[in-house]
Amino acid sequence: MSGKSIRTIKNDYKMIILLTGKPGCGKSSLVVELIKALKDKRVAGILVSGKEDILASVDIKTRIRVGKYGVNIKGIDNIVDLFMESFETTDYIFLDEIGKMELYSGKFEKISEEILNSGKHVIAVVHRNLVNRYKTKGELIWVEREKIGRIKKYILNKLK
User: Can you tell me the distance from the alpha carbon of 160 to that of 156, in angstroms, rounded to the nearest whole number?
Assistant: First the structure.
């Protein structure tokens, strides 16, 4: 991580929103829509960079697995490093997602905890199996496809 660390800032106005729900309910699509709606703001996160890497695949041969998928820890770590380049100058941070696969990366786990304590606005997708671990960190919203429009409007109103 090239020696960079996230500074913890005490800020009573920070907003941490945690999105969770069943697979295919629209969590990632909602994140993309929120990023588009905040285009005039300084936004950072894994989706924002536009860079891609294969983070898990049946073709990745490693002992670190989630189901039938091998996990590319180096790829996750590279995304964390890329994110750190834009952290200091951002107002809104998006994490998609905090899940079992991502948490195999010690670097990702450490940075995600620091992000949640950074004093910046954070919108994070949390895998439903990890909700109990993160639910005290911010406002938890259960996403359902038919409620995406209302959830988006609610979140944008809270962030402004």
Answer: 6
Q: Could you tell me the pTM of the whole model? A: 0.86
- Report residue 81 as tokens: 């490093």
Per the structure block, which two tokens stand in for 55?
């983070």
Give the C-alpha distances (Å, rounded to integers) separating 1 from 19, 35, 38, 81, 107.
27, 25, 27, 6, 8
For residue 117, the surrounding DSSP H or E stretch is: none
- Residues with Cβ within 8 Å of residue 124, at least 6 apart in sequence: 16, 17, 18, 19, 94, 95, 96, 97, 98, 112, 115, 116, 134, 138
Instruction: Going residue by residue through the chain, which has 160 residues, state the pLDDT in tens, using 9 for 90 and above.
Output: 344 444 444 445 689 999 999 999 999 999 999 999 998 999 888 664 456 678 888 898 889 998 999 999 999 999 999 888 888 888 899 998 999 999 999 999 999 999 999 889 999 999 999 999 999 999 999 999 999 999 999 999 998 7
